[in-house]
Amino acid sequence: MTTEAPGWIDTSLTNGPSVDTIGTLGPAGTSSEQAALYLWADRGRETAPDIRLYDTYEQAGLALREGAVTHVVIANAYAGVHSFYMDPTLRFAGAFLFDTPHYGIAVAPGHSIPKRPRIATHPAPVALVEELLPEEYTVEEILFATSTSAAADKARRRETDLALTTQPAAKANELEFISRTRPIRMLWSVFTLVGPTA
Ligand SMILES: O=C(O)C(=O)Cc1ccccc1
């Protein structure tokens, strides 16, 4: 393993298969999508980014095994990342630091927020709910969504009162922030298939 440019832990990102297609968590607006765009800008081909978004990181992993993508990007805050590290068919190809877009608590316009709101979030950033929720509210229930964009979609459909989500996902779902927002400093793991270039 070598440490290369600042912020990078590089095992085979430079010598391994070229970054042709990146799979990660979607739909559009996730932190993972932004991290994949960053990886593409740094290591991808000189073409438009080819990033495929899946409903779960596990589905992105399946796409990697089936050859539909060459690389998968996963947030290290995702608890299920352990199974990617343990899988003998996958190679940890490197990691990079990348701050997520700003996270905040958002509401659909016109929705009247109860004092005890139900809040959608991906499990990884759940601690931010307590940190960012304005003090006039108390959490009634946390509903886990498959991504921060899926959480925004729940608030847009009014399945929940609020969503902890990113700025791009809030915009795409026409939500308004009711809290301050902040990025999350995150380490991102990149996996490829174990192959002849091992
Ligand atoms: O990529 C996302 O938006 C996610 O839902 C997963 C996540 C959550 C918090 C930090 C990084 C990734």
TrEMBL record:
Signal peptide: none annotated. Gene3D superfamilies: Periplasmic binding protein-like II. Residues 21-197 form the Prephenate dehydratase domain. InterPro entries: Preph_deHydtase. It comes from the Bacteria. This is Prephenate dehydratase domain-containing protein. It comes from Streptomyces cellulosae.
